[in-house]
Amino acid sequence: MLKNGILNPQVNCALSKMTHLDTMLVSDAAMPLPQNAERIDLAFTLGIPPLVPVVEGILEECIIEKVYMANEMKQYSPDLFAEYEKLFAARQIPIECIPHAKMLEMTAECKAAIRTGENRYHYSSVLLVCGCPY
């Protein structure tokens, strides 16, 4: 039994296999998940769990060197965009905003896709790029 950190065994295992420059998608309930990624479905009901706490938990456990987010989030979910900006800036993680269609293409290469129950925000998914400890 773990004392703290990520308790979900699938998420814990997937994160432990990530290496430098691997990517993982943390998605809302509606985002199409890539077929070749390890798919982990945390969604319980709509809204549960929300996306941001899942991202925060991952940031506590993993070195993330960059984040990709959809440009459309700025227009359709400005409150969430501001929350992400603050969250990633506090950890000095750069954000690159790209068109949602491009993000969908990029997810084809991700190693893990973690689906949440998030349904409050449009374009809320993030693509995290794993960093290196040295």
Automatic annotation (TrEMBL):
EC numbers, comma separated: 5.4.99.62
Please provide an example of a Pfam family that matches this protein in its UniProt record. RbsD_FucU
GO molecular function terms attached to this record = D-ribose pyranase activity
The highest taxon in the source lineage is Bacteria
SUPFAM superfamilies found in the cross-reference section: RbsD-like (SSF102546)
Which keywords label this protein? Answer: Carbohydrate metabolism, Cytoplasm, Isomerase
Q: Which reaction does it catalyse?
A: beta-D-ribopyranose = beta-D-ribofuranose
The enzyme's first-digit EC class, named in words, is: isomerase
Name of the protein in its database record: D-ribose pyranase
Q: Gene name, please?
A: rbsD
